[in-house]
Every structure is written in structure tokens, then in C-alpha cells.
């Protein structure tokens, strides 16, 4: 059964879906220096507003945009929900731990808060899932949602991931790991410094092709297949040989009935950290030709952790619709032999892949087609 995307809602430091896509194509970045908390030194961060956002506010905004974009109206009684986050409402429980919040609201700190809020918002009485797979959460959610439709458990699913990770604990934790950049995000650059945290996420409306045709819905593209694996190696470092990540690529291609040479563009995870970019570049070199277009968009949006794969998926679908390869914002001097898009490139795009790799060795690959 064909699974199609009929609606997209997105928010990033560059704005909503169309503002973010326009800014990306124009090679703008939403990363600026901020000091949101007195206990943390000023750092490059990709904030949506001038102060850190709240996850429920972002969730309601993005879900409403996706529903409107798909031409739907609530209630959606039998709609499935697969909406994840790697942090959940962490800001709320940090406030509670510091004695600054109301204990009566402690249920709003649970990891499934965004998924439950979405179900309440649309009146869904169907399947509600709240995946958490580190930075692979967004793609995991999309892959699971597509399977719900293919297995005929649902005809329509709202899926994706939202992240509001700008909290003292997250900033200090990544800083102690030595993972944060000093100046900005420069994916695949020889002088890359580390990741820049960002807020945001994306929600896709997936439907069976039959349902979409019945209501004459516009279609951004198809979800072909996915590969999900785990390294079983280390809490934060990727497995040096990328064996499980390569397996995820192979599984995705097989399930999508695609050959490596049929891939026109890869939206890379591209965190701008030393280990991720090196391992990811080597993986792409092993699995694909040196002519396939590659870019990471984190130089523009920052790293939205669990939301990053959902953002990447939305940008892949916009690339298919517009026939434009989005640029690798922030690149100055390329370290690896890859066909990195240094600026927006007009290209014939039929099949694209989106990569996500998360702490704990979570690997997620999803294929989309025009």
C-alpha cells in the first residue's frame, strides 16, 4: 500500500515551513548568540523567539499548521498519532526540581506530553504512540506511522517530533561532554567545532494513497521505506565501522525497492561534531557514488535533537516538490570527498534519503519519492 504525505507543519529558528525553506535556500541561519540562563555563558543557539520555547506551545502550533496544510478539520476520531521527543517537557520538570513550579502540573512533565496533547487537540480515539529514540526520534516516528498505514491499522496518521531542549541541564550537559560549538554549526567542515542546539520540529500528515485520492488531497511525496537499527556499542560515540548504520541503509533501500544509484539526494544528519560527520561521510562513501547530492541543514536550524529527523524529512519533501537540493549552510572548507551542496542546487530529484543517528547508537533512515 502506498503511503503519501498530504500535510506538513514545521517550526524552526527560521520560522514556519515556508519561511524556513526560503531561508534555507537563501543560505540564512537562525543561529545567534544568546544567554537564556544566568548560570550558562552566552552560546550560539537556534531559538525560535528571544526566549526558550515551551513544547506544548510548539506542538499545538505545528500540528494546527499540518492539519490546515492537509485540508483537514478536527475532530479526526480515527487518526493515529505518533509524535515523539527526546526531551519531552524537560523545562517543566527542571522547574519542579528547583521548586519553581506547581506540583499539580507534574503530569505535564511526562515524555508523552506532546502526543497526548495532539490526541486531545484533534479528538483522536485511535492509536497514540510517543517514541523516544534520541536524535533518531523524528524518523522513527515517521517510519512507525507508515507501518500503521501499510498494516491497515490506520488510514491516516499525524507523525513527527517536537523539541524544546533549551534548558540549563541540556546546555550544561552537552557543554560538559565537550559537544557544543563555540561559534556556530559548520557541518562537514574541516574546522567544525561541535553542535549548536536548536528548537523546533515538524509534523507530517500521512495517509493511504487511496484515502488521499478520495478527497483529492495534494501530495508532497511518498514514504517508501525505512531502516532502523542500533549499534549496541556506546552511550554516545558511534560504532567506528558503522556496521549497524550501513545495515539500516541497506534495509531501507531493500524495503523501498531502490538501488543505491537511484538515490538523488541525501539529507545528512550532519551534526558538525568530529565523530558524527566523519562516520557519516565514510558511510555515504561506502554505500553510494561520489555524485549523489548531500547536505545537512543544521547550520541553518541548529540541532533540534529528537526533532531533527522530522525537520529533515520535511526538507526532503520540499526538495522533491521544488526540485531543489537545499544547501549545507555553514560550510567553509570541506573535509570529505562528498558532493556537498554549497548552495541551493536545481536538480532532478526522484528518490531521496533522510539520515538520523542518535546517542546510544540509534540509526534511522527513511526514503521518500516524488
UniProtKB/TrEMBL annotation:
Which part of the chain is the Ketosynthase family 3 (KS3) domain?
Answer: 1-370
- A Pfam family for this UniProt protein? Ketoacyl-synt_C
According to its UniProt entry, the protein's GO biological process terms are: fatty acid biosynthetic process
Keyword check for Transferase, yes or no.
yes
> Which PANTHER family does the record associate with it?
BETA KETOACYL-ACYL CARRIER PROTEIN SYNTHASE, POLYKETIDE SYNTHASE-RELATED
Regarding protein family, the annotation reads: Belongs to the thiolase-like superfamily. Beta-ketoacyl-ACP synthases family.
Name this polypeptide is given = Beta-ketoacyl-acyl-carrier-protein synthase I
Amino acid at each position: 500500500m502506498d503511503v503519501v504525505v498530504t500535510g506538513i507543519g514545521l517550526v524552526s529558528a527560521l520560522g514556519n515551513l515556508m519561511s524556513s525553506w526560503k531561508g534555507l535556500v537563501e543560505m540564512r541561519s537562525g543561529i545567534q548568540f544568546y544567554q537564556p540562563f544566568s548560570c550558562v555563558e552566552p552560546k550560539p543557539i537556534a531559538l525560535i523567539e528571544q526566549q526558550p520555547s515551551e513544547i506544548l506551545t510548539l506542538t499545538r502550533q505545528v500540528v494546527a499548521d499540518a492539519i490546515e496544510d492537509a485540508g483537514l478539520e478536527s475532530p479526526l476520531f480515527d487518526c493515529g498519532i505518533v509524535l515523539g521527543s527526546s526531551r519531552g517537557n524537560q523545562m517543566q520538570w527542571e522547574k519542579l526540581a528547583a521548586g519553581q513550579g506547581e506540583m499539580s502540573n507534574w503530569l505535564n512533565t511526562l515524555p508523552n506530553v506532546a502526543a497526548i496533547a495532539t490526541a486531545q487537540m484533534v479528538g483522536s480515539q485511535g492509536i497514540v504512540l510517543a517514541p523516544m529514540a534520541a536524535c533518531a526520534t523524528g524518523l522513527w516516528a515517521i517510519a512507525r506511522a507508515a507501518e500503521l498505514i501499510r498494516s491497515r491499522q490506520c488510514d491516516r496518521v499525524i507523525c513527527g517530533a517536537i523539541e524544546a531542549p533549551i534548558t540549563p541541564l541540556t546546555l550544561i550537559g552537552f557543554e560538559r561532554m565537550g559537544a557544543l560549538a563555540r561559534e556556530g554549526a559548520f557541518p562537514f567542515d574541516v574546522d567544525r567545532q561541535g553542535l549548536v542546539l536548536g528548537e523546533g520540529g515538524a509534523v507530517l500528515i500521512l495517509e493511504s494513497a487511496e484515502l488521499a485520492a478520495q478527497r483529492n488531497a495534494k501530495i508532497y511525496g511518498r514514504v517508501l521505506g525505512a531502516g532502523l537499527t542500533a549499534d549496541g556499542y556506546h552511550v554516545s560515540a558511534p560504532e567506528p565501522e558503522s556496521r549497524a548504520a550501513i545495515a539500516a541503509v541497506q534495509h531501507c533501500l531493500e524495503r523501498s525497492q531502490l538501488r543505491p544509484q537511484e538515490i538523488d539526494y541525501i539529507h545528512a544528519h550532519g551534526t558538525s561534531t568530529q565523530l558524527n560527520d566523519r562516520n557519516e561521510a565514510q558511510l555515504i562513501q561506502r554505500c553510494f557514488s561520489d555524485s549523489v547530492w548531500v547536505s545537512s541543514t543544521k547550520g541553518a536550524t541548529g540541532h533540534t535533537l529528537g526533532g531533527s529527523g522530522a525537520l529533515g524529512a520535511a526538507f526532503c519533501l520540499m526538495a522533491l516538490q521544488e526540485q531543489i537540493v537545499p544547501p549545507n549552510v555553514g560550510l567553509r572548507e570541506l573535509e570529505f570527498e562528498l558532493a556537498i551542496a554549497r548552495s541551493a542546487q536545481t536538480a532532478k530529484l526522484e528518490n531521496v534519503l533522510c539520515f538520523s543517528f542518535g546517542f546510544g547508537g540509534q540509526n534511522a533512515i527513511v526514503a521518500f519519492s516524488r
